[in-house]
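Supplementary notes for students who missed Thursday's class. We covered one full example, reproduced here. Read the sequence, then the structure, then the short commentary at the end.
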Amino acid sequence: MSSPAQPTQPYLAPEAMAATPLALRQSVAEAARTMHAWGCTPATSSNFSAREMGSAHFAISVSGLHKSKLTAEDFLEVDFQGTILNPEQAHLRPSAETLLHALVYQQFPETQTVLHSHSVNCTVLSKLYEADGGVWLKQFELLKAFEGITTHDIALWLPIFPNSQDMPALAQTVRTALPECLPVYGFLLAGHGLYTWGASPAQALRHAEAFEFLFESILKLRSHGYADYS
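Structure (token representation):
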């Protein structure tokens, strides 16, 4: 298997620099509601975040809220260590997975939005390929939905990491591995869900939708005995 090709276009979305903090949170909340409608955020699962370009802190969704009702007011400001920055929000609880969002912003400084979801398809696929450490996405036209990809004739590696409740250790595992997977547009936690991101909320949502299409396609190919996804 050949190594993944490099993107040919800049990753930075042109609208990324212009959004205000409130507009960013509103857009991410809308993305969360959209993903709930897709069936990607069952119960109160999933978490979403937004970061102003160049900032050393970001806004992440409050834990325990149903994502069908998420609004721009339902976010906490935290630093890259997960510390709540606004004393008036100290009684609220950020997602347990805040450190995973932080590592994406740190490793990919152009990122403005991180989306984490729990669809059936991504959860099933993550268990099927957990032992392989990931899955190749190859020869699909919809790969061109990922920023910078201009051809279907490409193979992208989607890494899969074992799930863990030890978030600092899990974050360190992901942080160490991601640079070896470039270009990378997301990762799976086995039996858990998908993380994807983008240089704007719209770009991140496009990546999430593309991943969901590819997950469903691969599972259907497997059900028909397709050799590449047997």
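Commentary. The CA atoms of residues 108 and 228 lie 31 Å apart. The chain is about 30% helix and 20% strand. If anything here is unclear, bring it to office hours.
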